Amino acid sequence: MSATPRGQQQPADDRVPPSAGHVVLVGASLAALHAAETLRQKGFAGRLTLVGAEPHPPYDRPPLSKRVLAGRLSAENTGLPQSIELDAEWRLGVAAVALDTKGKTVTLADGDVLGFDKLLIATGTRARTWPQPAEAALDGVVTIRTRDDARDLRARLAAGPRRVLVIGAGFVGSETASVCRELGLAVTVVERGAAPLAGALGGPAGTAAGRLHRHHGVDLRTSTSVLALEGDSAGRVCRARLSDGDVLEVDVVVAALGAIRNVEWLDGSGLAVDHRGVRCDAFCRAIHDDGRIDDDVLVAGDVACWPHPLFGDEPLAVEHWDNAVRQARVAATTMLHGPVLAHTALPTFWSNQFGVNIKVVGVPSRADQVAVVQGSVRDACFVATYGRAGRLIGALAVNTPRAVDSYAAMINDRAGFPLALNAADAPDPIRILDA
């Protein structure tokens, strides 16, 4: 008999999955697709409905700010494959606008009301737009989140703009800047913080990212804000005024300001919802304002906020591909079998920018200390570890992707920080820095 895998509880019995009933999945996304496939794979034979605000079937978002912008992949070719026949009803191009948990109904924007036996909330996030509406409406001021966004921005980049302005140096902003340089375009990145990626990876890694930007010809302005965007007589963006006093002539402005969780449609539902998303337990069951767990309403993907046993001080909200897939499978299992499989997978994500592969595991953003334990930052080939209160909570691998699994195992085993690895390529000495 094999041991129960990490993060999994032994089922109490061998209950047969229900063969009837109606499951509604709101958010025709990566998470919803994997939840639907898991339901069918586990024997659910009832009615299945997927509701999506976008008109497109589920598609892959990570390539949008990488291969699609660079012209190596068309936006139309980002669709996600279906591993099995879902036999589902698709309600695409119509958003959910209200949830009645007592009556077990979802109201759609076209007025239809869907009753459900089980519901998955997987409405994800949307791009945060430029906060000045008149400036955001200028032709050439764009965001990148959807397939349509990527198609539009790709066309603008292919037209050869004089200069692209990227506002925000997180992962999407940095990847966009990288593509601009790959295409030979002049690009300025404006970041209010002290360095790119510092919010996600801490100050020292951000400093290294900043050197990478500048080495590849990015005009990087840190500790700087955009005060105003200006348009010409035809309503096209043409100018940006910066807090450092500069005025830039620009043809395209990419607002890479982070994401907003799509939770407004849940107002009045009684669920515990805030800017971090919809609260749920480790089995993906939604939590009500009064603390009650709802066995019939599940949550997965970017919109979920849940407790992780390794990071118990504050619920996690993770906007990454791997988490959406794993959480969706847990949610589907809970629908069919109850709370037998907990979502305890470590957050893991990756990025490619300026020819560098970046992989991250754990939650570096919560660290108070960081140390490079393998390789060289100067050579852009290293592993940095992140600690909080004397425990390892994250790792960053730059151009060393195979190292991630080992550090993930150490995080799961609650290894102490700093680590004593005695690696052959360890810096001498290893410096412990404030994160």
From TrEMBL:
<keyword id="KW-0274">FAD</keyword>
<dbReference type="InterPro" id="IPR023753">
    <property type="entry name" value="FAD/NAD-binding_dom"/>
</dbReference>
<dbReference type="InterPro" id="IPR050446">
    <property type="entry name" value="FAD-oxidoreductase/Apoptosis"/>
</dbReference>
<dbReference type="InterPro" id="IPR028202">
    <property type="entry name" value="Reductase_C"/>
</dbReference>
<protein>
    <submittedName>
        <fullName>FAD/NAD(P)-binding oxidoreductase</fullName>
    </submittedName>
</protein>
<dbReference type="Pfam" id="PF07992">
    <property type="entry name" value="Pyr_redox_2"/>
</dbReference>
<keyword id="KW-0560">Oxidoreductase</keyword>
<dbReference type="InterPro" id="IPR016156">
    <property type="entry name" value="FAD/NAD-linked_Rdtase_dimer_sf"/>
</dbReference>
<feature type="domain" description="Reductase C-terminal">
    <location>
        <begin position="349"/>
        <end position="420"/>
    </location>
</feature>
<feature type="domain" description="FAD/NAD(P)-binding">
    <location>
        <begin position="22"/>
        <end position="328"/>
    </location>
</feature>
<keyword id="KW-0285">Flavoprotein</keyword>
<dbReference type="Pfam" id="PF14759">
    <property type="entry name" value="Reductase_C"/>
</dbReference>
<dbReference type="InterPro" id="IPR036188">
    <property type="entry name" value="FAD/NAD-bd_sf"/>
</dbReference>
